[in-house]
Amino acid sequence: MAIADLQTFTGLTDADIDNVARELDAIRTDVENSRGERDARYIRRTIVLQRALEVAGRLALTAGSSRAGWWAGAVTLALARIIENMEIGHNVIHGQWDWMNDPEIHSSSWEWDMAGSAAHWRFTHNFQHHKYTNVLGMDTDLGYGFLRVTHEQRWRWHHIGNVLFNAMLTLGFEWGVALQNSRSEIRKLFTTQDGSARASLRQRWSKAISQVVKDYVAVPLLTALSPRATVRSTLTANLVANAIRNAWAYSVIFCGHFPDGAEKFTEHDVSVEKKGEWYLRQLLGSANIEAGPLLAFLTGNLCYQIEHHLYPDLPSNRLAEIAVRVQAVCRKYRLPYTSGSFVVQYAQSWRTVAKLSLPALGRQRRVRRFGPVVM
User: Fold this and answer.
1) Closest of 93, 89, 92 to residue 80, by C-alpha
2) Which residue in 42, 53, 56, 164 has a CA-CA distance of 20 to 30 Å to 83?
3) What value does the CA radius of gyration of the chain take, rounded to a whole number of Å?
4) How many CB atoms lie within 10 A of CB 211?
């Protein structure tokens, strides 16, 4: 059940909440003051690696259309796109590297390799999702407008297809991102003749169309100039690479937001929310994935989803060290810190989607979740 009163749920006093905010602010200040060449080198090397993988994938596809070469090219391209979207695009657009003042690695100029436009995503994700994290009716990432992911969402007939829609979102996740909020913009366009809605729709469709042309027309035609490659082999490789990237991105995002322990919140006036309450909502509404260095890198360091939500604009390569200090704060104030294996959290997310495809047969009483703190 969604949380209506953070203070009652956590058992913290006003003074405790203020102290939590001060301690989490101190972590931010320490990291901001220590950013430097090591961090800049990390993102630049990541970009070089991603581009090298992209080139390697293209070369594998132009070298021939054998089954082994095709799979090598498709998987390498998928890996390149995962890194571009997760560790580079997502984090650059969040402004994690703006402090470098590098115009090529800046949130205002980066456009990522997917159907959704960066400008649209900066609003739906950076603003709507991170400001109103898991608040029903305010965070459009809760179900992306068609999935039912909590009992408080009113059941409608189309929710019976929750599992099917979730599978479609898995393979076409970039289109879920690209089309997010489009229904409300179309409604504004026809009911109020809103000029901003028209401009937004034009921008998002321009990006989506250009992405389709690049992936499924231009690049396959260019690859076919090689006598050992075909339009069809490159087109299908791009399609498979995008599907792999979409499924991976979906899995990471859902593991961080919808497993057991990732709380939801009833709609309330966020404008009067204290900073400590905002911190608590980020902490309670997110879940981490237990990961080693390689898995952390492939998730864009979103295996530290809690820390990312507390500090969305701090460099992703610093989240592991930040997590140690955040866990200490959680222990001190007896706050839940939800973390689990990728497989378990992925399964829990699907279980939630399946259960909520049917009307709720009853309501569970909300109880204060102290429980053991997971580290």
Assistant:
1) 89
2) 164
3) 21
4) 20
Beta-bridge mates of residue 340: 289
Q: What pLDDT digit, counting tens, does each position of 115-165 carry?
A: 999 999 998 899 889 999 999 888 888 887 789 988 888 899 999 999 999
Closest by CA position to 370, among listed 334, 346, 317, 326: 334
Q: Which position has the higher pLDDT, 220 or 195?
A: 220
The residue whose two tokens read 């409608």 is 156
Token digits of residue 55: 């080139």
Local confidence band at 257 (pLDDT 50, 70, 90 cut-offs): very high
CA 320 to chain centre: 18
If 0-12 CB within 10 Å is exposed, 13-18 middle and 19+ buried, where does residue 370 land? exposed
193 SS3 class: coil
What does the alpha-carbon distance between residue 263 and residue 311 come to, in Å, rounded to a whole number? Answer: 18
Cβ–Cβ under 8 Å, residues 102 and 41: no
**Tokens 């075909």 -> residue:** 230
Q: Does this model's pTM top 0.85? A: yes
Write the CA distances from 367 to 8, 280, 325, 373, integer angstroms. Answer: 10, 17, 27, 16
Query: Roughly how many angstroms between the first and final C-alpha of the chain, as a whole number?
Result: 24
Strand partners, 288: 339
Token pair of 258, please?
Answer: 């919808």
Per the document, the length of the chain is: 375
**Cα–Cα distance measured from residue 239 to residue 5, given in angstroms and rounded to the nearest whole number:** 46
* Residue for token pair 């294996």: 341
From residue 221, give the alpha-carbon distance in Å to each of 129, 218, 227: 39, 5, 12
Q: What distances in angstroms separate CA 368 from CA 23, 42, 101, one per listed residue?
A: 23, 41, 45
In which residue are the tokens 């599907």 written?
A: 243
Residue 168 CA to residue 175 CA, distance in Å, equals: 10
Q: What is the DSSP code (8-state) at residue 321?
A: H
* Mean pLDDT estimate for the chain: 90
Return the structure tokens found at 196.
């901003």
